[in-house]
Structure formats: C-alpha cells, structure tokens
Specification:
Its EC number is 2.1.1.-. The chain is about 40% helix and about 20% strand. The chain contains nine helices and seven strands. It is globular, with a radius of gyration of 17 Å.
Length: about 220
C-alpha cells in the first residue's frame, strides 16, 4: 500500500494550479491576513476553505455554525456555498479581526447571509441551545481555542442535525499530538477531542491528514 505523500512547496503549487479556484476577493483577504502577526498560521489554507464550500454545496446545507471567525476567510468560503436563503452564524471572542473580513463579505455579496456573534464560544453555544437551536445546523466548523475543543464538540453535536456534519480543524496540531513532551492545554484539548471522537458511537468519522489535520464527523 502507498503511504501518505509528503506535500512540499512544489507539489502544493501543483495542487493549487489544478484544483484551487480562489478568486480576487478571497486572494486579497488571504494576503491581507498573512500580513498580520501569526496571520498565515492562524487562517485556514485556501484548499480547506474550498473543501468546506464543497461539503456545504454537496450536502445541500442551508444553516452553518462556525466557531472561530478570525478574519473571515473560511466564513466567506462557506457563505458563498450557501443558497440565497442560507444563513451562517460565525462566533469570535472579539470583533477586531472579523472587521477585516467584513468588507470582503460585502464585496462578495454575501454579508446578508452572515450573522457575526461576539463572545465566549461556549456561552454563545449554550445560549443557542436555550433559544431552540438544537438539531438545527447542517454543518458546524470548529476552529476556535483548542483547550476547549472537547466542550465545543459536545455542544456542536447537540446543535447539528442528524445526518449533519461537524468539521474539526487542527486535529494534528502541528504534530504536537504525538509529541510526549507537549502537555500544554491546547495540545491536551486536541488529544482529548480526538480520543472522544474515535470512541464516539453517535457519529461516523474520517480524519484527513490535510493542512493541520481536519476531522470530518457525521452525526448518525
């Protein structure tokens, strides 16, 4: 059996030449984000944004929940994949970074589909549950602080509809998940959620060795 291909810069360039469909608006936002401190490391790869859009369009999703907006690149990718009546709720702890993306959302003509909510993610999710959002979303994308990943996952499973998908980003976490010396809260949180998903008989699962690790979870 073939092993996983190591994707170096030249092979990644090839992939982008033959697969990536990133227009000027997305490219402008990605380049602007890369100029911020730690911006390039924190934003999703364009291939991941395209994957999220592909999943949404393929499954006919109309309601999306995102945890961790940052500058809104993934937000824009997903909002564009929604039908005109679709809605995307995106949550961040501050409006400082999402404001960068807001202009690009408007340029792309999808700002009306996007509902930005500011606050601690767990509190926002708990409020959604109290407001009757259980079993609501076709897709939930988790890309917020890693220490709280286990809590976000459990809340997400209550918010996603049966048959819907939870996408968890950074599940390989720069390779720290297999480093025995890495015991910080973020790495511990990622390891814990990975173990929970592996053993969770409520869901189907596929972990992809792509970007920084992307785990696809389908609620049964």
């Amino acid at each position: 059996m073939a092993n996983q291909i190591a994707t170096g810069p030249k092979l990644l360039e090839y992939v982008r030449e033959f697969s990536l469909r990133e227009d000027d608006i997305l490219r402008d936002l990605r380049q602007l984000t890369a100029e911020l401190p730690h911006g390039e490391a924190m934003q999703v790869m364009p291939e991941e944004g395209q994957l999220l859009a592909f999943l949404i369009a393929s499954a006919g999703v109309v309601d999306v929940l995102e945890l961790g907006t940052f500058t809104g690149y993934s937000t824009l990718c997903m909002a564009r994949a929604l039908p005109p009546h679709g809605r995307l709720i995106t949550c961040d702890i501050t409006d400082r970074w999402p404001e960068i993306g807001a202009d690009h959302w408007r340029r792309a003509g999808v700002s009306g589909r996007i509902d930005l909510r500011i606050g601690a993610a767990a509190d926002l999710l708990e409020k959604m549950l109290a407001d009757g959002y259980s079993d609501r979303f076709g897709l939930v994308f988790i890309d917020a602080d890693k220490a709280n990943y286990p809590r976000y996952y459990e809340l997400a499973l209550r918010l996603v509809r049966p048959g819907g998908m939870v996408v968890v980003d950074n599940t390989l976490f720069f390779g720290r998940v297999i480093d025995p010396l890495a015991d910080d809260a973020d790495t511990t949180g990622v390891r814990e959620v990975n173990a929970t998903i592996r053993d969770d008989r409520r869901v189907d699962v596929c972990m992809l060795p792509m970007a920084d690790g992307i785990t696809l979870v389908r609620r049964r």
